[in-house]
Design brief:
287 residues, alpha/beta, 2 domains
Length: 287
């Protein structure tokens, strides 16, 4: 009866679904008390219900907050894509007439007319977490490969901080794809994928042209020593905050998922311009 009464109070406080979960927790507590104290002991102690109620309320609030963050991220990612699409159309229209007014990024070698944001999107949508077109390989970050989320999180927590990302599943997948596709000359990556590309650059510094987004790494000094390696991050991204070699874009949101995005980078990989918020000829996609 105590369990039913407790679940009823929790249901009134936070709703039926969470109440079912709480009833299970209370039942487990009662079973443990029974196993420990026998028939003569109390199944539920005086404070069990109160403590469970507080835990459930906190869990409910955290779930609501996370749902809001995800909804906000979805909307803002869609808005970013629309702004970038508009920017790409405008830039494509004016590019031939005003080519000399744009700052070209010499290290970008992709000639396949696909923006990095679309290549990386395709990588995240593919089962392998990789997407290849022409001579460019796009590499997704954490959870990009189907069924790899837990493995990737372990790599984020343990392998990246200890500089052992070469032992990750992501690294093995990329290495296998590079061996299978010797025509690849350029690597584009995001998050965990960028940590993998950095490691490849350390081992073979002159082999690939690379563009890394939101890299979870610690780099000393300013710009990358090798001009073939371009790193880009958003100002508000805490994951890549120690990437001191990155070109930092003035994009900062309250939502950490949006800050860790690559979708606000206009035209990179297609138009060969400097990534940034200020573009010449009056075109600024972030306004």
């Amino acid at each position: 009866m105590a369990i039913i009464s407790g679940a009823s109070q929790i249901a009134r406080a936070v709703g039926t679904n969470v109440a079912r979960e709480s009833a299970r927790d209370l039942a487990q507590t009662a079973f443990r008390n029974f196993a420990r104290n026998g028939r003569n002991g109390q199944l539920l102690e005086r404070g069990d219900l109160e403590r469970q109620l507080e835990r459930v309320k906190l869990r409910h609030l955290m779930n609501q907050a996370w749902d809001e963050i995800k909804k906000d991220n979805t909307k803002k990612q869609e808005d970013l894509n629309e702004r970038m699409n508009l920017f790409a159309r405008n830039l494509n229209k004016h590019y031939k007439r005003q080519k000399t007014r744009y700052a070209e990024e010499a290290n970008v070698g992709n000639k396949n007319h696909i923006e990095d944001r679309w290549g990386l999107r395709n990588a995240y949508w593919s089962k392998s977490g990789l997407y290849k077109t022409g001579n460019t390989l796009y590499i997704s970050g954490t959870g990009g490969k189907e069924g790899s989320l837990q493995e990737d999180i372990m790599s984020d927590i343990f392998l990246i901080p200890t500089r052992m990302v070469q032992h990750s599943e992501k690294y093995r997948d990329v290495e296998a794809e590079l061996k299978k596709s010797p025509e690849i000359k350029r690597l584009v990556s995001h998050s965990l994928g960028s940590a993998v590309v950095n490691r490849i650059n350390e081992r073979m510094p002159d082999k690939y042209q690379t563009t890394t987004y939101a890299t979870p790494t610690f780099s000393r000094g300013g710009k990358p020593k090798n001009p073939k390696h371009l790193s880009i991050r958003n100002k508000g991204d805490v994951i890549s905050v120690f990437d001191n070699a990155a070109m930092t874009l003035d994009n900062s949101e309250w939502n950490p998922l949006v800050n860790h995005s690559f979708k606000n980078v206009e035209g990179q990989g297609r138009f060969e311009i400097n990534a940034g918020t200020q573009i010449s000829a009056g075109i600024n996609p972030n306004q």
